[in-house]
Amino acid sequence: MNHFLECIEEFLNYLYIDKKYSENTIQSYERDLMKYYEFLGQPELEQVKKEDIKRYLAYLKEQHLGDKTMSRNISCLRSFYKFLLMERMIQKNPIEFIELPKIRKTLPSVLSEEEVDKLLDVPLTDHYSYRNKAMLELMYATGLRVSELVNLELNDIDFYTDTVRTLGKGSKERIIPLGDYAKEALRIYIEDHRPKMMKRTPNNYVFVNNHGNKMTRQGFFKILKKLAKEKEIKTPFSPHTLRHSFATHLLNHGADLRSIQELLGHSDISTTQIYTHVTNEKVKQEYDDFHPHA
């Protein structure tokens, strides 16, 4: 095997074992590094120069990638070369003094409280609609990531203490309070509807698809987009829009930023601070709309 490929493999193992990165992140990093490797012409590790990295970054810029994708590619290269230096696989870090492209920080898309109410008003007509209602109520009540939501198992829900247990990024456990609306929607779905959705192969995942198998992230987002379209919600949607709305609405109602950080499972408070910018934008918009001298 090419030494470069061996280094990629060792790096990915390090992310999984030592850093406890999620499977999704590791898969993304693997794709990014293989794209980098192919672009450079499958070189040996020692052959890569600073100019090659600059050329690759220019190529990425030409691809008009989204800000998050571009940011991840840069973060991936930084982490990769930092790992190689730490393991003494290279003598110098070729990316260290390269001026990296500045990534514009975009504010997360957030629903108004009225839009959330519209979205959560799911017509309850069959087993699947009760499941959808429970998923949406739970996500808005807890701020779970989509990957955390679909990986929930039945024993993660504690109706006695009204809490949800989840393993977030880096396999960090957190316990999140469960509000009355989400608790009731979950209880009805789990007791009355989930058993009837299970097929031949039983499993312990809370949310299952139409075949009785574990709900996927893609499946959840498909349901979310369909419901948003039916409710004529105009705010741009992403899989984490309800998570962003959860945090922003808590902040709007006076919740402490540190508490929101704990609920979201952010390791760094700076990640949570993006929501203060969202609320500041809202205040500015209301000033512009309603102040007579604005």
How many β-strands, per DSSP? 3
Percentage beta strand: under 5%
Q: Which blocks of ≥5 consecutive residues have pLDDT under 50?
A: none
User: What's the tally of helices?
Assistant: 13
Order of helical and strand elements: HHHHHHHEEEHHHHHH
How many domain units? Answer: 2
Strand order of the largest sheet: 1-2-3
CATH class of the largest domain: Mainly Alpha
Largest sheet: 3 strands, antiparallel
Shape: globular
Q: N- to C-terminal separation?
A: 66 Å
Q: What is the residue-mean pLDDT, rounded to a whole number? A: 87
Question: What class do helices, strands and sheet pairing give?
Answer: mainly alpha
CATH superfamily of the largest domain: Intergrase catalytic core
What would your notes on this structure say?
The protein is mostly helical and 294 residues long. It folds into 2 domains: 84 residues, DNA polymerase, domain 1 (Orthogonal Bundle), CATH 1.10.150; 177 residues, Orthogonal Bundle (hpI Integrase, Chain A), CATH 1.10.443.10. Strands 1-2-3 form a 3-stranded antiparallel β-sheet, with no helix packed on it. Helix 1 packs antiparallel against helix 2, helix 2 crosses helix 4 and helix 6 packs across helix 10. It starts with a helix and ends with a helix. The mean pLDDT is 87. Belongs to the 'phage' integrase family. XerD subfamily. One of its GO terms (biological process) is cell division.
